[in-house]
Amino acid sequence: MPTVAERFQTALNLLNGWGFKTATVAGWQTRTARKDIPYQPQGVVNHHTGAWETKDDLLFRTGRTGLPAPLCQWAVQVDGTITCGAAGYANGAGINNQAAVEALIAGMPLNSEWHPAGDTPNYSGNRRTISIEVKAPGAYNEAQRAATVALNAALILAFGWSKTRPPVGAHKEITRRKPGDPGDDMGKFRADVVAFIAAKATPVPDPEPTPDPEPVPAVAPIRIGVANCQSYDGDKSAAAWTARGLKMKAEKRNVWCVSETSKPGRDVLCAVLGKTWKAKALADKTVAVLYDSAELAPRLTRPALFGTPFGHGAIAVPLYNAAAKLGTDVIAVHCRPHTVATLAQKQGDARKAASLAGTWPSVIAGDFAQQDPPLPGWVRQTLNVDTMDATGEQHVDAAFTKGPWTATNSRRIDPGNLSDHKWLAVDLTPNTTK
Q1: Which domains, from first to last, does the chain contain?
Q2: Contact 333/287 with Cβ under 8 angstroms?
Q3: Are 141 and 182 in contact (CB under 8 A)?
Q4: What are the E-state strand segments in 313-418?
């Protein structure tokens, strides 16, 4: 019977054949945290590390105080590289609910997550499961999500486990100690693993030749609008939200980063913009990204609250434009105003919002409550006409980009009495010369 290391090598070979980037840590074939416990994996537990910058050395060599390495067998890097660091027992899952581990091995549902009972005293699933750690603070970025689905699929095939009820789960599904680990819908994740395996087993026929399409005018794949809608002391009526929606629709954007909105207000905005428009809001508070789902498909969001009841914060929504083959991390932000935060605190808000960006080209836009937020590596793409704390127009909204963008058609929009802020617009196209 093949050893665990030999099955892991089979998984690495599959991943390489599928076009995924892989790496190994020297000595992985014999690395183990416990030589006194037989290691016989029967399923996979997916975790996140809680940070983008977690080091391989911590996971595979040094461990933590009181917890020897390895802490997992596999890791997925920020760029989607899949690293194999150990083929032996790992201190990954800790103490778990035994019935939940059994359910994972039997195959959890493909349409819902498993909710475990309390931990079973002195029971750990470590000797029966493979631990995958994804280097992310919660939800994975797009490259990591794709790599993690593929890694789970490769392990299923390498070990000969069920392809239709895969023994795949999450740390949060086998213990209540980790309710958000990882930040993914595991029912959907398992369904994606099943679909990935089926796709790899199904030959793809050669496509029928099609005539060249008629040329169409070039359109920027990301057309950002920025709008502070002044919901807390402005006009909250349905008529006002309808008027805001009509103003937005006239601008022909496919994304709006909005602040000071309400759930009823966003519903009206999306209805006016069109039936394909959707909203991703920060904890159902006031900050949100509105997007046209006919052009853009969302991935897992990444939130950050700044600690006010009003809901100041930021939300990152990865959006994929299939026509342009372009993924963009769009971050809507509303920093705390001077009434509740010092300049240093507002600068911290901006940095925290920018840290939500993953590996895709990124856009951060919204109300920064400051003239020049500290965003090293980001480029302002809208006019800097801030007159904060001075007589005249109050304009603290902006859009910044990170990555190879060409910005065009940057301008201000006057919403009249629909807001006390000017709105902004800018068109973004990948700069292929960089």
Answers
A1: 4-200 (3.40.80.10), 222-430 (3.60.10.10)
A2: yes
A3: no
A4: 313-321, 326-334, 362-367, 379-380, 397-402, 405-413
| pLDDT in 10s for each residue of the chain, 434 residues | 789 999 999 999 999 999 999 999 999 999 999 999 999 999 999 999 999 999 999 999 999 998 999 999 999 999 999 999 999 999 999 999 999 999 999 999 999 999 999 999 999 999 999 999 999 998 899 999 999 999 999 999 999 999 999 999 999 999 999 999 999 999 999 999 999 999 987 654 555 565 555 544 457 899 999 999 985 667 788 999 999 999 999 999 999 999 999 999 999 999 999 999 999 999 888 999 999 999 999 999 999 999 998 889 999 999 999 888 899 999 999 999 988 999 999 999 999 999 999 889 999 999 999 888 999 999 999 877 544 444 444 568 999 999 999 999 999 999 988 998 889 999 999 885 43
Question: At 66, is the secondary structure helix, strand, or coil?
Answer: coil
**Structure token pair of residue 150:** 């593929």
DSSP string, 20-37: --EEE-TTTTT--S-SSS
H or E segment and range at residue 100:
helix 98-106
Phi and psi at residue 134, to the nearest 5°? -100, 130
Nearest by Cα to 415 from 284, 290, 256: 256
Q: Which helix (H) or strand (E) holds 353?
A: helix 343-354
Structural tokens at position 411: 């301008």
**Cis upstream peptide for 70 (omega within 30°):** yes
Note the pTM of the prediction, 2 decimals.
0.56
Sheet holding 255-259, edge to edge: 277-281, 288-292, 255-259, 222-228, 423-430, 405-413
Q: Where are the beta strands (DSSP E) in 155-221?
A: 168-170
Distance CA 256, CA 424 (A): 10
CA gap 71, 59 in Å, rounded: 5
Mapping DSSP to helix (H, G, I), strand (E, B) and coil, where does residue 247 land? helix
Q: Which DSSP symbol is given to 404?
A: S
Tokens (6 digits) for 196? 């990935």
